[in-house]
């Protein structure tokens, strides 16, 4: 019961600021609203006993990514405007599609028998994550660094002036 | 797994490692080569890519298996698609060496990004793990967004980049949601283990996951109803990039789609064949009908590429038997040469005459007879007339459809081929019958000449003497399955 209550509270902490993110007309407020959303997700990770991921979530998302977004807003010409319209005249159509999709998802999820057998938790998360990165997921781990490098090159090309 | 077998596994990713090296070398060379001579950077990349063909093609006949802890496939299917990815990149870089330098000062980065994208396409073709698949799709998408919006002075290119990005980000998010459902149902990300665990009766959430995943793959291969971005992006992107997207991303998208559908979902007895068949018919028909009124060559080729995605999906739907998977491979290779060739002609006209409108091709037969003849061959090949490469592909996928009892789909395909003759013949008509605005002969840059020669020869040789290719595709159609 206590677990369910915690889950509900964390879900609300995640979802309510998320609505602000996509509706607020003040872009800085929208960016800062991401912080409680990320912290709510952190709480969910803690509930899943993934402390390491939770810690990383705070460091990277609540910390670094938010600051990065604020920097982007600051450095974009005319980006700090407080009168950004996030909605257009297609809102009713989009809302209908979203509600319909949510309905379909809920119906399907409740009718599916999910395998919920509990796994065995490793004693130390960090060790398990490190081992997984350099054994089972070594190729993925290495490809990720290539993706980051290439994204960096691409971002520089896009950002620099053409003259 | 011990260290020795890990070392052995590293040899199987030798082509990928080599390409990574070529990409880094291209980036470094760009630092020292002075502006105005950047074509040398492109040529270095081309040499590196050509050399990458040697280790790649030597792997065609290797024993199919998965390596690196089951995340990467070594099978003929993956190798064949890797070869397509490399050949596409070589030809696209050759075609761009002349015109890109005048349009952007980031020419060196352009070649480096193309080489890195080729690496991404190879990873996509051979991934056997949902995480690696997601990562490589995202990798290819990221570089493609940048390439589409590469000409920052050109508003249409900017529009292409941002549209591609918005569509792509949404499609990826939907697809990854589908992946997460599959993981939730099976508790593993390995495609082969998923196939094993899904062999019980399919549950409702699996159908949902299939639909969500198709959104992402459909975006990559520009399948109806996820095709809307295609004409705008192809029109706005630099023409070599449009050529690259219409062939390279599409081929790798098909590789991922076929692997996920045939290897992973088929054992679960989810009936996806009918769904794919309907989407195939819709893509062919809608793509063709929308191509009819187009006057811009790039938009016309975009809609025609949607319709060709439909044809390829026939081969995916009819994968059982001897024709389906080899058919997709033969079709992809033939389509690669022909579609690239058509785009290269558009590149040349675009850079020499500054126009992409089909009526401006008037009198090309007099101004550049070889070019016009090649374009006519490409157009006839895209229609599917013998003796050309796409005819061979169409023949195979239609035979596969009939073989699989999808006769109605084959009929839709044949009707669509006839319709497509109208707009392809429109280009030939403009080149050969309409009077030229000027008689001045067109200059043909060397890089483009080589690229056009290879695509033209590929198109014709595959049509006239297809036997070696058919044998290769048959032996390569060994898709590692359970």
From TrEMBL, chain A:
General function of this protein: NDH-1 shuttles electrons from NADH, via FMN and iron-sulfur (Fe-S) centers, to quinones in the respiratory chain. Couples the redox reaction to proton translocation (for every two electrons transferred, four hydrogen ions are translocated across the cytoplasmic membrane), and thus conserves the redox energy in a proton gradient.
Keywords from the UniProt entry: Cell membrane, Membrane, NAD, Quinone, Transmembrane, Transmembrane helix
Reactions catalysed according to its record: a quinone + NADH + 5 H(+)(in) = a quinol + NAD(+) + 4 H(+)(out)
Keyword Cell wall biogenesis/degradation: no
Domain of life: Bacteria
Name recorded for this polypeptide: NADH-quinone oxidoreductase subunit J
EC identifiers of the protein: 7.1.1.-
Topology of this chain in the membrane: Multi-pass membrane protein
An example molecular function term from Gene Ontology annotations: quinone binding
Gene Ontology annotations for the cellular component aspect, listed alphabetically: plasma membrane
Entry keyword Phosphoprotein: no
Transmembrane feature ranges: 6-23, 30-48, 54-76, 97-117, 137-159
Family annotation (InterPro entries): NADH_UbQ/plastoQ_OxRdtase_su6, Nuo/plastoQ_OxRdtase_6_NuoJ
Protein family: Belongs to the complex I subunit 6 family.
Subcellular location: Cell membrane
Pfam families xref list: Oxidored_q3
TrEMBL record, chain B:
Entry superkingdom: Bacteria
A biological process from GO: ATP synthesis coupled electron transport
Keywords: Cell membrane, Membrane, NAD, Quinone, Translocase, Transmembrane, Transmembrane helix, Transport, Ubiquinone
Origin organism lineage: Bacteria, Bacillati, Candidatus Sysuimicrobiota, Candidatus Sysuimicrobiia, Candidatus Sysuimicrobiales
Keyword RNA-binding appears in the UniProt entry: no
Location(s), subcellular: Cell membrane; Endomembrane system; Membrane
TM stretches of this protein: 12-33, 40-62, 77-96, 108-125, 164-185, 205-226, 238-260, 272-293, 300-319, 331-349, 370-393, 405-425, 446-465
Alphabetical list of NCBIfam families matching this protein: NDH_I_N (TIGR01770)
Organism per entry: Candidatus Segetimicrobium genomatis
Gene Ontology molecular function: any one: quinone binding
Family membership noted in the UniProt record: Belongs to the complex I subunit 2 family.
Main function: NDH-1 shuttles electrons from NADH, via FMN and iron-sulfur (Fe-S) centers, to quinones in the respiratory chain. The immediate electron acceptor for the enzyme in this species is believed to be ubiquinone. Couples the redox reaction to proton translocation (for every two electrons transferred, four hydrogen ions are translocated across the cytoplasmic membrane), and thus conserves the redox energy in a proton gradient.
Protein name stated in the entry: NADH-quinone oxidoreductase subunit N
Main location: membrane
Cross-referenced InterPro entries: NADH-Q_OxRdtase_suN/2, ND/Mrp_TM
Reaction catalysed by this enzyme: a quinone + NADH + 5 H(+)(in) = a quinol + NAD(+) + 4 H(+)(out)
Keyword Transport: yes
Topology in membrane: Multi-pass membrane protein
Cellular component, GO, one term: endomembrane system
Pfam families: Proton_antipo_M (PF00361)
Quaternary structure and partners: NDH-1 is composed of 14 different subunits. Subunits NuoA, H, J, K, L, M, N constitute the membrane sector of the complex.
EC number: 7.1.1.-
NADH:quinone oxidoreductase/Mrp antiporter transmembrane domain sequence ranges: 127-420
């Amino acid at each position: 019961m206590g677990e369910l209550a915690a889950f509900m509270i964390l879900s609300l902490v995640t979802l309510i600021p998320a609505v602000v993110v996509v509706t607020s007309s003040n872009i800085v407020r929208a960016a800062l609203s991401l912080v409680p959303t990320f912290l709510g997700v952190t709480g969910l990770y803690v509930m899943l006993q993934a402390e390491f991921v939770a810690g990383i979530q705070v460091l990277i998302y609540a910390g670094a990514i938010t600051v990065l977004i604020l920097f982007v807003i600051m450095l974009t010409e005319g980006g700090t405007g407080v009168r950004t319209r996030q909605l257009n005249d297609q809102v009713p159509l989009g809302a209908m599609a979203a509600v319909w999709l949510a309905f379909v998802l809920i119906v399907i999820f409740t009718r599916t028998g999910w395998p919920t057998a509990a796994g065995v938790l490793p004693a130390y998360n960090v060790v398990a994550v490190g081992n997984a990165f350099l054994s089972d997921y070594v190729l993925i781990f290495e490809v990720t660094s290539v993706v980051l490098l290439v994204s960096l090159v691409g971002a520089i090309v896009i950002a620099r002036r053409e003259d | 797994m011990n260290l020795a077998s890990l070392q052995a596994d590293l040899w199987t990713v030798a082509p990928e490692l080599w390409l990574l090296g070529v990409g880094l070398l291209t980036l470094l060379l760009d630092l020292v080569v002075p502006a105005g001579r950047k074509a040398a950077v492109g040529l270095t990349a081309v040499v590196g890519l050509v050399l990458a063909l040697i280790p790649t093609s030597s792997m065609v006949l290797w024993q199919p298996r998965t390596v690196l802890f089951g995340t990467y496939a070594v099978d003929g299917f993956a190798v064949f698609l890797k070869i397509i990815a490399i050949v596409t990149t070589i030809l696209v870089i050759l075609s761009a060496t002349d015109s890109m330098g005048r349009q952007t000062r980031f020419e060196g980065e352009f070649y480096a990004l193309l080489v890195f994208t080729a690496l991404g396409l190879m990873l996509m073709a051979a991934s056997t793990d949902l995480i690696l698949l997601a990562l490589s799709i995202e990798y290819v998408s990221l570089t493609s967004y940048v390439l589409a919006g590469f000409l920052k002075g050109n508003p249409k290119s900017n529009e292409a980049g941002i549209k591609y990005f918005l569509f792509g980000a949404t499609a990826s998010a939907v697809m990854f949601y589908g992946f997460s459902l599959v993981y939730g149902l099976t508790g593993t990300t390995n495609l082969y283990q998923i196939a094993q665990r899904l062999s019980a009766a399919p549950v409702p959430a699996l159908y949902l996951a299939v639909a969500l995943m198709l959104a992402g793959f459909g975006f990559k291969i520009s399948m109806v109803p996820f095709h809307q971005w295609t004409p705008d992006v192809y029109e706005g992107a630099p023409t070599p990039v449009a050529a690259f997207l219409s062939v390279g991303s599409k081929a790798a998208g098909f590789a991922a789609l076929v692997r996920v559908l045939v290897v992973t979902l088929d054992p679960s007895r989810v009936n996806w064949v009918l769904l794919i068949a309907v989407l195939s018919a819709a893509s062919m028909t809608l793509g063709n009908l929308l191509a009819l009124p187009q006057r811009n060559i790039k938009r016309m080729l975009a809609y025609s590429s949607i319709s060709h995605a439909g044809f390829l999906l026939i081969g995916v739907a009819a994968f059982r038997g001897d024709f389906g998977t080899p058919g997709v491979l033969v079709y992809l290779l033939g389509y690669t040469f022909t579609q690239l060739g058509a785009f290269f002609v558009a590149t040349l006209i675009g850079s020499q005459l500054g126009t992409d409108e089909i009526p401006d091709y008037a009198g090309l037969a007099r101004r550049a007879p070889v070019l016009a003849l090649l374009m006519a061959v490409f157009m006839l090949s895209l229609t599917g007339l013998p003796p050309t490469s796409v005819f061979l592909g169409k023949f195979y996928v239609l035979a596969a459809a009939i073989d699989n009892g999808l006769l109605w789909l084959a009929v839709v395909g044949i009707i669509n081929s006839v319709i497509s003759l109208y707009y392809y013949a429109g280009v030939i008509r403009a080149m050969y019958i309409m009077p030229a605005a000027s008689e001045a002969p067109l200059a043909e840059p060397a890089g483009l000449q080589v690229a056009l020669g290879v695509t033209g020869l590929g198109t014709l040789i595959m049509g006239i003497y297809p036997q070696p290719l058919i044998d290769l595709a048959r032996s390569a159609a060994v898709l590692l399955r359970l």
